[in-house]
Amino acid sequence: MKKETQFSHISRPRIGITTPVNHNITKASTLLFNNSKDLYRSDVRGYGRHGSEIHDALAHAFNVLEDGVATTIFPSGLAACTIAILSLVKTGDHVLLTDSSYGPIKNFCMQFLLSLGIETELYNPRIGCDIEKQIKKSTKLIIMESPGSLSFEVQDVPAIVKVAKKNNIFTLIDNTWSAGLSFNPLNHGVDISCHAATKYFGGHSDIMCGVAISRTKEIAKKVKKTAKNLGNSISPDDVYGILRGFRTLITRFKQQEETSLYLATWLNKQSKVSRVIHPAHVSHPDHELWKRDFTGGGCIFSAVLKPCSENEVDKFIDRLELFGIGFSYGGYESLCINCDPQLVREKSDKLSGPLIRFACGLENLEDLKNDIEKSLLKLRLD
Questions:
Q1: What is the value of pTM for the model shown?
Q2: What residues does 276 pair with on adjacent strands?
Q3: Confidence (pLDDT) at 9
Q4: Do 256 and 134 share a structural domain?
Q5: Cα–Cα distances in Å, from 33 out to 46, 85, 111?
Q6: CATH number of residue 88's parent domain
Q7: DSSP annotation of 39
Q8: What is the pLDDT of residue 363?
Q9: Positive or negative CA dihedral for 194, 180, 277, 144?
Q10: Looking at residue 4, what is its pLDDT?
Q11: Could you give the angle at which helices 365-377 and 236-267 cross, rounded to 10 degrees?
Q12: Which of 213, 244, 275 is the last residue of a domain?
């Protein structure tokens, strides 16, 4: 069965007489029991913080998406990553983190984990099997993000996983870019796949949510236990919204994917653009690796402008009428940001020239192109 069909039917209520199409939202803190002994059963929920039927329905949908055995739901994508990381490491451990990771994850690892006595070492996202040279006896976790945040390096996930398994090291990846549709890391042996469900799955830029999908029951238990100990909880209203977004995910993703590649191809030919950075574009240095492991693209990509002042970069973005100025992506609206203020790289290939990121929404692609073209015409190069 194709995913388009699956996503229309999975995690829905069992049909009876006058059954609603979608699950009801259960709002509860206290859950009541018939007798005192049942209150302490380990096979049922004892409190509203632990979720409800609709939480189970959403977790099942993510399991189907990436062939996971269990999914833990969090109030944000960052929480999904950080709590999943905490479930796998302890004081004295060593973590390897891709230099192209999402900024808040890098801050969490380099600062918060350090305060717990956990060392984090950065590695070049294009390191592949050579990551073995950075492994120590204390290495317990390798964190990936492919493509990388802002700069979109594609990692050789199978090669890294092979090294990790050889050395009994856990692996975790931020798989938000692909929405789990164009890349399935669990099938490549990755232990945990994390998503900021806020993005594609929410689809309307009005819900915060994150998930951690586990490959094995053992790992799932670690994540669930850590999440419970740290008081993890997410509103059933938000879970309902994310599950609703599942129904239209593929349709939206296809259009956004098409628009992003169209704009990247067009921008690559513009005289004021040095190059585009889109894994699905033939000019990307990791394009062959992307073709090997991915079945499609995503809605975001970056472009390197030819040398110009920071003021000119900001003016270029400010002139855009259809692209909003804001973080995130995967919503119905297109966005554009200046990446330079947050672009910190220590182990990656250096980028020359101002870097801007486009996130494509559901607007007509010709209208988006015209919007960019008008602003480009006024851009003054150094």
A1: 0.96
A2: 303
A3: 87
A4: no
A5: 9, 35, 44
A6: 3.40.640.10
A7: G
A8: 98
A9: positive
A10: 86
A11: 60
A12: 244
Q: Which helix (H) or strand (E) holds 232?
A: none
Contact (CB, 8 A) for 210 and 198: yes
Q: Distance between CA atoms of 254 and 252, rounded to whole angstroms?
A: 6
The residue written with tokens 């998503």 in the block is 195
Pair 162, 268 in one domain: no
Catalytic site positions: 49, 102, 174, 199
Evaluate whether residue 382 is within a structural domain: no
Instruction: Give, rounded to a whole angstrom, the gap between the first and last alpha carbons of the chain.
Output: 55
| Encoded amino acid at 324, one letter | G
Return the CA Rg of the chain.
22
DSSP state of 108: I
Q: Where are the beta strands (DSSP E) in 185-293?
A: 192-195, 210-214, 273-277
Amino acid letter, residue 167: N
For residue 183, what are the domain limits?
3-244
CA dihedral angle for residue 133, residue 137, residue 143, residue 149, rounded to 10 degrees: -40
Flag residues of the chain having pLDDT under 50: none
What angle is formed at CA 274 by the lines to CA 268 and CA 280, rounded to 5 degrees? 40
Q: 4: which 2 tokens?
A: 């388009």
- pLDDT tens column, 218-267: 999 999 999 999 999 999 999 999 999 999 999 999 999 999 999 999 99
348-to-54, 125, 147, 154, 342 alpha-carbon distances in Å: 42, 7, 13, 12, 15
The pLDDT value recorded for residue 373 is: 98
Cis status, amide bond into 354, omega within 30 of 0: no
Closest residue by Cα to residue 56 from 14, 2, 15, 20: 14
